[in-house]
């Protein structure tokens, strides 16, 4: 055939599968896993990590801001690096995980019973019992200044200042914070605005242990004349992002804009009444709790940081879960009694009509005249 190589359909399909697998592996090598609601996280290209859940509390009293963050991670990475910009110099310590349990209880939806007359799915006779179905149940001076470095649980924390994005990138790489080149560009606006940085390396106590589960919370404190939640670096994420943010302040708070995501949603708003414990300590002086959620289907559209402002009113918001319940009388569905009673009345009425008809006198037939005689 003149040196031409013939490929059978089977051979072509095998080559397509092999090329697809190689493409997937190359994607893993050049695209680190980014997943964090208010900062940038990256791991060794040969490993994977994902933030399956992130919870953050922002407390602002008009002069000082505190952010408590807890990440839940999955994957096979044994270490990871993360950086969070802050508008002023921050102190960092481990937070109390109990505060998140208290917050979850504080914003838990209330259950209310709502009755209905006619049966619905799940009520007899539509309960599917016959077929066995179960019921549904984030300094001026040298290009980079090191304010401090400390070990906090599984975290290696460096607090930095920078006047040059390239110098900051160089310092991070030289000190074991291996971050991608595109982060330098993303940090440029913060450098221009003279923000500072908290660089964090996540590493478990045992060298061969992968990072999994809920990590210890980090508690950051810094001066702030406005409530701001850093979000700009999240535009580096390669997958849709979600934000769950608790805000403690003197009044109900709301984001100034959507910053490129879907409209933020308030799932809870209300004053805390003597919560006690870790939440009571954190909320002292800022008794109004606002819980916000937001989705970012396209992280590249994130245009800035969340600036939070006082809402127009302190109107409370509470999620309500209605437990629908069928109206009953002495345990018997009211609709069944009603329908049954109407049926009994109808039968009785028919019976009365039948009896009355039976007792009505029957008129005798008219007399029959004899036929005329035959001729």
What do these coordinates show?
The chain is an alpha+beta fold. It is built from six helices and 21 strands. The strands form five sheets. Strands 2, 3, 5, 10, 11, 13, 15, 16 and 18 form a nine-stranded mixed β-sheet that branches. The chain has a five-stranded antiparallel β-sheet with strand order 1-4-9-8-7. Strand 7 and strand 8 (155-162) form a beta hairpin. Residues 1-9, 11-38 and 128-141 have low confidence and may be disordered.
Q: Strand share of the residues? A: 25-35%
Q: Please compute the radius of gyration using only Cα atoms.
A: 35 Å
How can the largest sheet be summarized?
9 strands, mixed
How many runs of DSSP E, i.e. beta strands?
A: 21
Q: Kindly state the percentage of residues in helix.
A: 10-25%
Brief sketch in words of this structure:
By secondary structure, this protein is α+β, with helices and mostly antiparallel strands. 23% of the residues lie in helices and 34% in strands.
Tags for this entry?
375 residues, alpha+beta, 9-stranded mixed beta sheet, 5-stranded antiparallel beta sheet
Layout of helices and strands, plus pairs?
Blueprint: H1 9-30, E1 40-43, E2 49-60, E3 64-75, E4 80-86, E5 90-94, H2 98-106, E6 110-116, E7 144-152, E8 155-162, H3 165-174, H4 182-192, E9 196-202, E10 213-214, E11 218-223, E12 227-229, E13 241-249, E14 253-255, E15 265-271, H5 277-283, E16 288-296, E17 306-310, E18 317-318, E19 320-326, E20 328-329, E21 332-333, H6 334-359
Parallel strand pairs: 2-13, 6-19
Antiparallel strand pairs: 1-4, 2-3, 3-10, 3-11, 4-9, 5-11, 7-8, 8-9, 12-17, 13-16, 14-17, 15-16, 15-18, 20-21
């Amino acid at each position: 055939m003149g040196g031409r190589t013939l490929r059978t359909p089977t051979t072509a399909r095998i080559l397509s599968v092999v090329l697809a697998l190689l493409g997937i592996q190359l994607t893993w090598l050049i695209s680190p896993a980014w997943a964090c609601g208010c900062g940038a996280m990256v791991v060794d290209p040969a490993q994977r990590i994902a933030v399956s859940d992130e919870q953050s509390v922002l407390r602002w009293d008009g002069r000082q801001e505190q952010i408590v963050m807890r990440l839940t991670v999955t994957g096979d990475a044994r270490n990871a690096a993360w950086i969070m910009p802050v508008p002023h110099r921050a102190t960092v310590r481990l937070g109390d995980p109990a505060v998140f349990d208290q917050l979850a209880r504080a914003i838990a939806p209330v259950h209310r019973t709502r009755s209905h007359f006619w049966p619905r799915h799940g009520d007899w006779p539509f309960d599917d019992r016959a077929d066995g179905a179960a019921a549904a149940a984030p300094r001026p001076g040298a290009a980079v200044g090191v304010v401090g470095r400390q070990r906090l649980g599984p975290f290696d924390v460096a607090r930095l200042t920078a006047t040059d994005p390239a110098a900051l990138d160089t310092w991070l790489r030289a000190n074991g914070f291996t971050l991608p080149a595109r982060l330098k560009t993303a940090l440029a606006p913060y450098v221009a605005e003279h923000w500072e940085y908290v660089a964090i390396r996540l590493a478990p106590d045992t060298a061969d242990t992968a990072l999994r589960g809920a990590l210890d919370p980090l508690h950051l404190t810094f001066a702030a004349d406005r409530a701001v939640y850093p979000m700009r670096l999240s535009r580096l994420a390669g997958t849709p992002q979600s934000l769950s943010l608790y805000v403690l302040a003197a009044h109900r708070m709301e984001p100034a804009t959507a910053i490129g995501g879907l409209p933020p949603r308030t799932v809870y708003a209300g004053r805390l009444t003597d919560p006690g414990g870790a939440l009571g300590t954190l909320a002292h002086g800022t008794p109004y709790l606002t819980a916000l959620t937001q989705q970012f289907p396209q992280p590249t559209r994130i245009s800035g940081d969340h600036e939070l402002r006082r809402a127009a009113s302190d109107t409370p918001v509470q999620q309500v879960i209605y437990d629908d319940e069928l109206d009953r009388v002495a345990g018997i569905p009211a609709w069944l009694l009603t329908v049954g009673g109407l049926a009994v009345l109808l039968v009785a009425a028919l019976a009365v009509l039948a009896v009355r008809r039976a007792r009505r006198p029957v008129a005798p037939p008219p007399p029959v005249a004899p036929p005329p005689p035959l001729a």
